[in-house]
């Protein structure tokens, strides 16, 4: 009742929605960098949204299944193959004991998520199964998954045929050529020159290859302060846009520190963090300011979409349970 890592990916970890309530003690929230894709993987299988998944970043691993189970793959398309045959993303997939899954480089994003029906049998640390790489706790021994690792699951399920998955609309954020990333004003927004503010909201920015789970370093228009000012370290969060002395913004991500001392020009809205998290370095994007009310409306719309999908998949699983009970 487990999966085995056969070949390592570039960065493969166990993640859930994050570790909350401990930032005052110095712990990052951690969690899936694309929470939407991670939740979709669980919704497809009728799992709780917060059930731990495997997050595979940049280049995927190869995995073997040591029992029959049901899985789903969401997020970036890493050209998945089971026993050498291509399979679809965003679908419910049945696998047999002895089957192997191969994943490669993401074609339309950076992060792919593998969920298992019933979830992984991993103990939580501080109320979360997420991996905290910087302090080596949580997840699987607090580290990335390596060849030979065996990840136990809760529930083996006899293989069956499934014919449902996600529609293209709900994952369209993965295929935008020049996406718009909305933000609300940061605490030091008005510290920046008028030209810098104009450039920030009109020029194209790119993520760089120096980006990671702690922060996405951007390249684009150089942002300048009106006058040099000292800033006392303040609280930060996932999506905070800091501007260091070189004028090139950094967007803090899931493994970011709880505080920071750089001026904050903005905060990426929660609804757009998944979109930002999947951007390739060659993929330009534009920042657009919005109000708190607009940010809340966009988040509400996103949650409505997920709630509708959850209700539909729950009905599918209820029908399946009547015909094919799990073992």
Automatic annotation (TrEMBL):
Every Carboxyltransferase domain range: 24-305
InterPro entries: CT_A_B, Cyclophilin-like_dom_sf, PxpC
Coiled coil (UniProt feature): none
SMART domains in UniProt: AHS2 (SM00797)
The entry's keywords: ATP-binding, Hydrolase, Nucleotide-binding
One Pfam entry name: CT_A_B
Nucleotide-binding recorded as keyword: yes
Tree of life domain: Bacteria
Presence of keyword Iron-sulfur: no
Protein name: Biotin-dependent carboxyltransferase family protein
Species assigned in the record: Aquibacillus rhizosphaerae
Organism classification: Bacteria, Bacillati, Bacillota, Bacilli, Bacillales
